[in-house]
Amino acid sequence: MTPLERAEARFGWRLVAPTIGIIGILILYPIVFNVYLSFFDVKLNGDKTFVGLTNYLQLITNPDYYSSIVTTGIYLFGTVTGTTLLGLAVALLMREPFRGRGLVSAAILMPYFAPVISVVFGWQFLFDPVNGVFNWLMVDVLNLWDQRTNLIGEPGSAVWVVIIFDVWKHFPIAYLLILSKLTSIPKDQYEAAAIDGYGPIGRFFHVTLPEIYFVLATVVILRLIWNLNRFEDVFLLAPNVETLPVFTYYQAFTGVIDQGLAAATSVIQFSVLCVLIWFYVKKILKW
Q: Which CATH superfamily does the domain covering 64-243+279-284 fall into?
């Protein structure tokens, strides 16, 4: 390198050094410290005893851990599938201009930007077993049920309420990503497909779907990454739905507190996230 190139390189490192420092403090240090804690028995007074892989062995023999994995799998499948399909359906409906399209778009985006705590309280009232609108509709109006049911109070039904809530709140981001790609597809392709004899369904599978494949794959992988880490929506709406983040929280801060075991849980979860991120970067972004 010439002296000028070395000077420019040093100047570049000085420019990015504050960012690297902030990333190291806020992201890398907590990750490294969490991995460190996973090999210790952590006491409430701060004392730590090295136990090696004991936390991991204890975790893989804990039936509650496997139950949380099953719950997380149901939650991920329901939310990712629902978010993607609903976002696709709404994007297809909103693709063509019509009067009042701006107002409708604003209404669609409203759930995504609404504060989580406020909409969670609204949904809890909606499914309240005594005064909730859902039970009133099912029991008193439609007479489909014989008695009122606390859907959020039962873990088996609460997970489906959480899934519906997550789909309703987060499908707008899928809608925006898919719509942006739909509007960029040349109309010539649809005209050529129509000349070849394809109807609306044929044009969807032979023109629309290949064009939006990359966006759909991006939505699916990103939703998997985000929802595997999602805590606030699930815990605030139905704390009895123990997905992996909620299970980790209970291990670390409630009951018989075991922060070493919670750290081991989060390390395994972080490893899964790294695999998903690697897949997204290598197979979808093709970096």
A: MetI-like (1.10.3720.10)
